[in-house]
Amino acid sequence: MNEGIEQPSARSAWDRVKAVLRFEPGIFMEIAQDNSATGQACVVFGVAVLLSCLWTFPIVPIAWLFGFLGIAIMTGLFMLLARMFAGGPPSEGVAESHEPREDRPDDMPPYSGWLRAILFASVPVAFGVVPLVGTFIGAIFSLILEIVAIRELSGISTGAAVMAWIIAVLVPGILIIASIMLFGFWMLGIFGLNELLRWH
Known about the structure:
About 60% of the residues lie in helices and about 0% in strands. It has seven helices and no strands. It has helices at about 15-20, 25-35, 40-50, 60-85, 110-120, 135-155, 160-190. The radius of gyration is 20 Å and the shape is globular. About 30% of the residues are buried.
């Protein structure tokens, strides 16, 4: 009998949610390394979005789709930037791991592991079930969990993880704003309204 082989004592999604909310050391690495946790991560994300949109139920499918796409893109950026920051010497205060890590990009989990961890980090979005205040608290809490996940999965310092998060959020934000402005100028040109912008 192969008991004990490849039995990583997989925890339930609920136990992992509680561990994430309690900032349990090593929880994000545990999720990232457990390939069977992909279903759990998707369910956790789905339930969190459902609760956050409970008062605007018809938009739940749109929130699921765009929320998942947004997280998928942001996860790629988090991973890419963390790899850039992870080139230096071991930093102090790096995720309280049980075994010493050599802070090399090769030590990081693959993209699928990062995605599972970031999906679990989105669990505070569920606080949006309480309008306004819950949404705000959930967004801040989720932001903090994402930074903790970045730090833990990459072995970089908290400061570097914060920088990686800020850059990852700023880049798409700047691109979106630039695209909207270009689209606006293009529309003004089509309707011949660009003269409105000229100073006489």
